[in-house]
C-alpha cells in the first residue's frame, strides 16, 4: 500500500502561500483522502439555508467560479482522492496537476506529500513546494520502513473518518450539520498536526521545522517568504546571485539576528564549525580574518556564510571602517510611522530614525561623524546604529570605481568609436586570493602593512625602484593591450614621466574597467588608499571616476533591481 | 520563451473501448503508457468536467478541457471528449489555456448545432483542423480556420505580462521607441488624444491639463501603454534635480549596443556625434549634492554636442542613473498639533508640489527654515 501526501497551495493574492495540505493514499482499500488542512468548509445544512433571506436579485450561478473563493473547497474529498492518488509509474517524480486556477504539486512515492499552489505562482515557488513535499516524503518513507509509522497514522485517520461519517449520518437525519472529520483527526494524529504545522508555517514565516514521529527532523525554508524587502519577495535568481556573491575574502558577514538568538535556533546536532563562525563573526571583520579567527578554511567560511544567507540569517557587506561611505538606500522606508522607526527608538532611546536617516542623505563617511568632543561611548553607539541600519537594509555603501577612457584623437575621430573600449579588450588577469595578508586596525583600512611580495598575482614582482630594463619591458608589455594612440596619450601625461608612477599605472591597468572598486584594488595589490587616490589624480585626464554601490553585494540591499 | 506545442490530440470515451485517443497529430506521439497514466485527467469524472486541466507526467505536459454532453441519443446517454495539447514539461503553458478552453467551447457548439463530433464523416475533418492548428500556432501564434460554411475559428496566443505599476500624476511617460512606429488608429480614443502630448518631459498632470482629458483617464491610458512596453516612466526634469549613478552605468562601457543607442539619442540635433568619453564623464559627474545646473557649469565643454535633457532622459530610461528625491519628515511636533499629513517621509517633493500646486522653490523655502522638519534624500 502506498500513500500520497499532497499539499494544495493557494491563497488569493498571496502567490507564495499554500492553499492547503492534503494527504492521500492509494492501496487495497482504494483511494482515500487521509487528511486535509484547512478543513473544507462544512456543506450548507438545509436548516441553515432556510433561515437566510433570499436575495431577489441574486443569479443562480452554479457554473461560475468566483475568483476569490477558496480554491479547493470546490473539490470534494472523494474527487481529491481520485485525482491525487496517482499510478505507480508516477512515483518518485514530481507530480504537478493544474485544474482551473488551482495547482497541485506533490511527490508521489510510497508516501506522497504534495503542496498545492495558486495556478500562476512562480515556477520557483512550485519547485520549492515540491522540494518540501519530497523531504517530508523521504522522512515518512524512512519512518515507515523503520516502524510502519505511516500505516499506523493512516489507520488512525481512516478510523476517525469512519467514526465521524457515521455520526454525521445520524446527525443529518435529524437535521443537524455534517461535521468535518479532519477536525477530529488533529488531536489524535501527530502526522496530521505536523502537516497542519507545515501549512501554517508556510503561510506565515516560510520556515518549516518538523519532527516526523518526534524523531526525524525535516527543515525547509521558502526563500520567497524569508527574503522580503517591503512587500515584495526576492526572486530566486536574485537569491542565487546573492549566494554567488559570497566569494570575496575582503567582504564581511553581517548577522541579522543577535548571536544568542541565532545559536538558540540551531539544532542540537549542528556542525561545530557553524557555532564557531557565529561566535567569531563581526561586522568589522572580513571573511579572511574570520577564517583565521575561527580556525576554518576560507572555503568553509564561504559555504557556511552561504547557508546563513540562504536562511535569511545574514547578509554580506563590506567590513565596517571609518572610511566607508554610506548613503540612504533608495528602497529604505523612511516613514515616520513605520515599524522600523518604532523599533529604532526603542533600541536607541533619545534618537529617532528619520533624523538619523537624514544624516545619510548625502554620502557620508563614518569618520565624518567623529568629533574630538564626542565621548567614545557615543562613537560606539553610532557604530551600533549603523549596523542596525545595515541589518534593516536602510543604508547602502558607496565605492569608487575607475574607468580608463582616452580622449579621442583629432586625426582619427571616427575610428575611435568603432574600437572596443579598453574594458572589452583587456582580458582580465585572474585575481585570485592572496595567500596571506595582514591588516591593520579595522577602523582604518588605510593602515595596512605590506606583505612580502610572495602573492601569486600581485604585480609586486616588478622590482621596486630603478629604471631597470626588466621593469621597462614589463611596463611596455602591460601597455601593449592599448592602441598606439592610447599609449601615446598616456605617455604624454606629465605624471608618466616618472617611471614609478607609470609602472604603477601599467600594473593596475586591468582594474580600470569600472568593475573593481578602490577597496578591492587596495586588498589585492596591497596598497594604501592615499597611494591610489594620488595615482588617480595624476592620471585624471584619461580616467573617469564615479561612485556607486557594489553590484556584487547590492543584491542584499536592493534585491528588486 | 516560445510556447511550442508538440502534439494536439482528440480523446473520447468510446462506448465499448473506454477512454482512448481517437486522433493525434503528429501520430504516435502520445505513448500507450503515457495515456494510461494520465487518462483519468483527460476523460474525467463529472466533477472535473469543463475545467482546464494541466497534468505533468513523463516529461510532458498535457493541457485539456474535458467536455460532457448529455443526451439520450448517445450510447451511454453522454458524449465525453477532450481536445488537448501536449508540450514539453518545462514549457510555460499559461498562454495556451485560453485557447484550449475556447476550442472546447467551439467543439461543444459544433456538436450541439450539427452533431459534428458524433457523426463519423464530420469527425474525420478534425484531423486536418488539428494539423493546421498545430502548424499555425507554432509558427505565428495565431490561427484562423473555417470549419464549415457557417463557422470559423479564431485563435491567438496571448503572452501574459507583469502587472504595470500605478501611474502617479507626477510621473513622466516617455516612448521607448520612436513614436512613429505605432499606428495611432489602433489605440483607443483616449490614448489617441493624449499621444501627441507624451514627449518625455510632460508629467501626467500636465498632459491631463493640456490634452483636456480627465486625470484618472490619463493615468489608466498611460498604465496601459506601460503594460505593453510602449512607454516607460521617468521623473519630472528640472535643473535643480539631483541624480546619481547606478552600477549599470558601466554598461555604457561594456555594451556596444547601449553605447550606440545612447550616443545617437543624446547628441544635439545637427551636431557631430558626441564622444563616449564626454557622455560617460557627464553621467559620472552626476552625484548626490550636484544639481543638473551644477553639471552644466562644470562640464560645459562636454555639453557642446550633448543635449542635457535627453542625456538625463536616456540615463533614467536605461537605469544608468537614478533620481534622488527629497522627502520631508516632521520629527518634532507639538502634542496638540495635528499629525503631519504630507511630511511623513512617504511623499516626495515632486508629489507634494504636484498635489498642492506650490513650486519647488516655495516648498524649499518653507521647509528649510522649519526646525521641526528634516529632509531625507533617497
Care to describe what's here?
With 561 residues, chain A is α+β, with helices and mostly antiparallel strands. Helices cover 40% and strands 16% of the residues of chain A. Chain A is built from 22 helices and 17 strands. In chain A, strands 1, 2, 3, 4, 5 and 6 form a six-stranded antiparallel β-sheet that branches. In chain A, strands 13, 14, 15, 16 and 17 form a five-stranded antiparallel β-sheet that branches. Chain A has a two-stranded antiparallel sheet with strand order 7-8. In chain A, a hairpin with a 2-residue loop joins strand 9 (228-229) and strand 10 (232-233). Chain A is elongated. The model of chain A is unreliable at 1-13, 41-56, 58-72, 412-420 and 426-465 (pLDDT under 50). Chain B has four domains: 5-156, Beta-Lactamase, CATH 3.30.450; 171-224; 242-324, no CATH class; 326-377, no CATH class. In chain B, the strands form five sheets. In chain B, strands 1, 2, 3, 4, 5 and 6 form a six-stranded antiparallel β-sheet that branches. In chain B, strands 7-8 form a two-stranded antiparallel ribbon. A two-stranded antiparallel sheet of chain B has the order 9-10. The relative contact order of chain B is 0.07. Chains A and B meet through helix 2, strand 4, helix 14, helix 16 and strand 16 of A and helix 1, strand 3, helix 10, strand 13 and strand 14 of B. Strand 4 (95-99) of chain A pairs antiparallel with strand 3 (53-57) of chain B. Chain A: Residues 483-544 form the GATOR1 complex protein NPRL3 C-terminal HTH domain. Chain A: One of its GO terms (biological process) is cellular response to amino acid starvation. Chain A: One of its GO terms (cellular component) is lysosome. Chain A: Keywords: Lysosome, Signal.
Architecture blueprint of SSEs:
The complex is a heterodimer of chains A (561) and B (378).
Chain A: E1 2-8, E2 20-27, E3 30-37, H1 46-51, H2 77-84, E4 95-99, E5 102-106, E6 114-118, H3 123-147, H4 149-173, H5 181-188, H6 190-203, E7 207-212, E8 216-221, H7 223-226, E9 228-229, E10 232-233, H8 236-244, E11 252-255, H9 259-265, H10 272-280, H11 287-294, H12 298-310, E12 314-317, E13 325-328, H13 339-347, H14 353-359, E14 364-365, H15 376-391, E15 395-404, H16 413-418, H17 422-425, H18 469-479, H19 484-491, H20 499-508, E16 513-517, H21 518-525, H22 529-538, E17 543-549
Antiparallel strand pairs in A: 1-2, 1-5, 2-3, 2-6, 4-5, 5-6, 7-8, 9-10, 11-12, 13-14, 13-15, 15-16, 15-17
Helix pairs in contact in A: 4-5, 5-6, 10-11, 11-12, 18-20
Chain B: E1 7-14, E2 18-25, H1 32-42, E3 53-57, E4 60-64, E5 67-70, E6 78-88, H2 97-114, H3 120-123, H4 126-139, E7 142-146, E8 152-156, E9 171-175, H5 189-194, H6 204-211, H7 215-227, E10 231-235, E11 242-245, H8 251-254, H9 256-266, H10 276-285, H11 292-298, H12 308-317, E12 321-324, E13 326-330, H13 349-356, H14 360-368, E14 373-377
Antiparallel strand pairs in B: 1-2, 1-6, 3-4, 4-6, 5-6, 7-8, 9-10, 11-12, 13-14
Family (chain B): Belongs to the NPR2 family.
Pfam family, one (chain B): NPR2
GO cellular component, one term (chain B): GATOR1 complex
